[in-house]
């Protein structure tokens, strides 16, 4: 019986929009307070999964492409 419940739960999760399924975001200023510069803050905020490149760019008044370049250059961080 539990396997049927697990299958139903797994299939119902597929219909939840990605935006609704994201974790609760810590405010960007709090994330920024924990890091020494903007670049590491951007990387940390993106890694939380709570912010996308557009939201981070809007906060720092950067174009989303600029945020993408920062993340791409530091994807090993």
Query: Approximately how much helix is present in the residues?
Result: 55-70%
* Number of helices in the DSSP assignment: 5
User: Roughly how many Å is the radius of gyration?
Assistant: 16 Å
Count all strands and give the number: 0
Helix/strand order, N-terminal first: HHHHH
What class would the helix/strand composition place it in?
Answer: mainly alpha
Shape: elongated
Q: Could you name the key traits of this structure?
A:
mainly alpha; 5 helices; 60% helix; elongated
Explain briefly what this protein structure is.
The chain has 77 residues and is mainly alpha-helical. 60% of the residues lie in helices and 0% in strands.
Written overview of the protein:
By secondary structure, the protein is mainly α. 60% of the residues lie in helices and 0% in strands. Helix 4 packs across helix 5. It is elongated and about 50 Å long. The relative contact order is 0.11.
SSE blueprint and pairings:
Elements: H1 2-13, H2 28-33, H3 38-47, H4 53-60, H5 64-73
Helix pairs in contact: 4-5
């Amino acid at each position: 019986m539990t396997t049927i419940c697990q299958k139903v739960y797994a299939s119902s999760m597929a219909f939840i929009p990605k935006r609704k399924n994201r974790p609760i975001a810590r405010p960007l200023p709090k994330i920024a307070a924990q890091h020494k510069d903007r670049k590491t803050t951007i990387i940390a905020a993106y890694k939380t999964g709570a912010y996308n490149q557009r939201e981070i760019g809007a906060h720092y008044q950067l174009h989303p492409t600029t945020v993408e370049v920062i993340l791409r250059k530091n994807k090993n961080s």
